[in-house]
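Structure, all two chains, one model.
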Amino acid sequence: MLKNYFKILWRKLWSDKVNSLIHIGGLAVGISAVLILLIYVRFEQSFDADLPFSEQLYRVNLTTQTDGDIVETGSRTSPGIGENILKEVPGVEALSRVVILGEVIAGFQDQFIREESIFLTDTEYFDFFDVKMLHGKVASMNEPMQVMISNQISEKIFGKENPVGKTLQINSTNFDGTVDFQVAGVFESPASNRHLRPEILISYATLHQFIGKEIDQSYDWVNLYTYLKLNPEASITDLEFAANENLQRHYGEALESNHSKWDLSLQSVSSIHTSLDTTGEYEKGIDGKKLSYFLWIGLFVLLMVYLNSINISNAKALNRAREIGVRKVSGGTKKHLFFQFTFESLALNLIAVILASVLIASSGSLLNNLLDLGLPDSDFQLEPNLQYLIGFWLIGTLLSGIYPALVLTSFSPANALKGTLKWKMKSAFSRPLLVTQLVFCLIIIAGVLTVYKQLEFMRDQQLGLSLEDKLVFRSPMLYVEGSGNYQEQLQNSVGSLNSVKKLAATNEIPGTEVYWRSDDFHLKGKEKNGLMYTMLNVGEGYFEVFGIEYLAGKSFNPALENGSEAIINRKALEALGLENPEEALGQTLAFGNSGVPIVAVVENFRQQGVNVEVEPLVLNFSKQDLKYYVVDFEKGNAEKVLAEIEYVFEKQYASSPFEYYFLDEHFDRQYKSEQQFVKLFGLASLVAVLIAVMGILGVTNQLVIQRTKEISIRKILGASPSQIMNLISGEYVIWLAVCFLVGVPLSYFLLSNWLENFQIQVSLGWWFFALPAVSILLIFVLTTLYQTLKAMFVNPSETLKSE
Amino acid sequence: MIQLKEIDKFIESRFQRIFILKGINLTIKEGEFLTLMGPSGAGKSTLLNILGLLDEDYEGEYFFGERNIRKMRERDLSNLHKSEFGYIFQAYHLIDELTVYENIETPLLYRKVSSNERKSIIADLLDRFNMVAKKDLFPAQLSGGQQQLVGIARAIAGRPRVLLADEPTGNLHSGQAKEIMEIFQELHKEGTTIIQATHARENADYGTRLINLLDGRIESDEAI
């Protein structure tokens, strides 16, 4: 019997190849698209969620407040906070502190690499974050000057040898040069779903060697991450309360005198990646809300896919009334027939699901790269997605198979065979289905348009500095090649090239957060007010290279010593309590025990993307070695400039790698998550539109076929082609009108909601209302054009003959 | 074998009942070859559907042997239907996606006949109708007469005692029609009860009894 069902299904699919392809292909493509969204969401939500103590792990965040205004919630805290909480607050089982070291050059003998993922931490970190040791013992991290490296780093520097006990040289600005460490162990490179993914770990005790043991009690060195492992029974609210009490006891007085208030809060480690609420993160997380948008889009696409599938299944089933009649007459019972239809639906959906899984497994990593999703390739294999696939299979069967099965099997055989069967449900069902699809389509088109416009709008914002035609290259290895005067050397070599308009050194380039923060700045003779300032060391020509506007004063005097003058931005001017830029000139900006004169005030410029607020900034002049060099060059000269600089650099600093990028590209990387959103959204909408087109095609085709007889009779009675067109398209106009009436307000609501996430928002102008509507109209007209024409020029003698 | 008592079939319209069949009393003995005749709308097909258990929406009594059809349970009815009746249609009603062989096989599958037995039954039938060479063709590749032969083979595959045929030759030209009627005659000789509805008077001559219907009533009932 099953063989018989299978044959019928197979031959039906083959005999109607185009429709089968639309049906199964639509299902497969739709399921694949939704699967990618699901895989993406699953990955983003899996961050630190699979750690052994994931539920017990919390990070201490610090909210700083000045005179009642919340300044910001930072992820970084000072060592004393954790130290005293562990000692004095009950319910805390263990403490781990992590210090970001910043980019280093590490290596041994002649094998050197640049590495950013390097941290100082203690032995607890290995327990908290489930770091797997391959060689060596975790306990050795209690000693100073010990380093653990990942297997990847180990291979790059030491090859296949076991490096334990060997020396690793690390070159960093924080060490003022190169320092020798002993390799204490090798660990497995962390999974890609960790919010910190260290490749090199230096023992925390090293910090004591460099700064002294008293650092552990420091409260004003707000520079590390504090992780706590809590007792499983501990109440978070109680613990937060106790932690703040503890903070007040140890540091309350000092805060009071600074007019600032600190508030500690606990954030579960597994939520760090999906939150954007904190500053000072090592890696910018993603917006957790965005993930739910993806789920919604996925649901949209899935709904459209299944609506289509239901439509096609129903239309096909209707054509089988006769077969059902014959089967009933030949002795088939309702049960037999129900089983047959369910079986067909199961088989059909299974084929679609298998196709989808093949599609994902074969082209998943390609899409991953194309959309820049950063997912591990193993996520596209069959096994981790099996549950979803089975889900799609069963849901698809249930939705598209059960209904026709129920309706069709209830026909009386005498009626079914007579062919007089009019399935009223059919037309009552397919029209709302089609309008729903059109509405979804409209919303998705409006969505893509808005997301795109918003991104463009953000890019076009006045940044206050120019990013175009700028090449950035990294400083030669510090303190190695006769360092101390790279700036001068490079101004003489690279700076004198004809193709280079201007060269400037800086410690951080636009597009990257400046981590050096302090609330210590104030005007001499005035009190500190607790506001945070960022500090940046820049070399000669910095303002000229970026075209930053002076509000008052002029650039640093290069003849003076390092750090003997300061330049502030407008935001800092306001933070200092001044209004007029001129006022600031000549005033002394105090910091700790020293003070330097302010020589200029510059207009605010955006160090980071438009979604990050401009912070008060103090710029210091430095003639010494800084991390980056920025080259301003003539438009269209990029390749020539690059080649020339590379040649000069490599001749001058043979042992340092030449690494470069173009500034605008680097700056755009901040919008990665928005771009990812656009790309994923784009993919989903492409699929959705495709499926909608198929749906429109299917339904209108069915309707035209149903009305062929009517149209033929009208033609015989004298209707002209244009009258026939009016007849057919009259109904279409109503559908489209309903689609616009429902779709436009709905998409307005959804998208203005989405825009709320941005600091600056593009306004939803005429394009928002007109373009999606026009697109839908075009899609609709083009899709139905062929059928309408066919109906208009139908030959009545041929169509009526078959009646 | 079959006994109908006071069978009424009607449609309720707003003001009155429109009778399709009215007061039909009919007894059919085993082995009869009965022909129903009458103009369009006389109720031939309706009566045939009622006789074949395809239509349950009527009033009156229907006895099949000793059993009262109206009082039988769904399952017994379904079994009776499978074991006793075979159907032949004017428009053949073959399943387009199945080959000749598979079409004949369909009722056997529903009767849970074993694979070997199915093979031998179908082989016999193909042989009998000279269609062995055509067994792997699809209905669309056959002429009308050949399709109807498959229809008959399918109808008798389950060895029913009663064969119901609604205008079996209606779509065929006279040569083919003659062939079909001769097969009916042969089946009749083998003991099958046949009930056919037809417009063509010459078809009635192959049978043993002729009933004329008019406006839902039996107009005449004569032996041939």
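The two ends of chain B are 20 Å apart (CA to CA).
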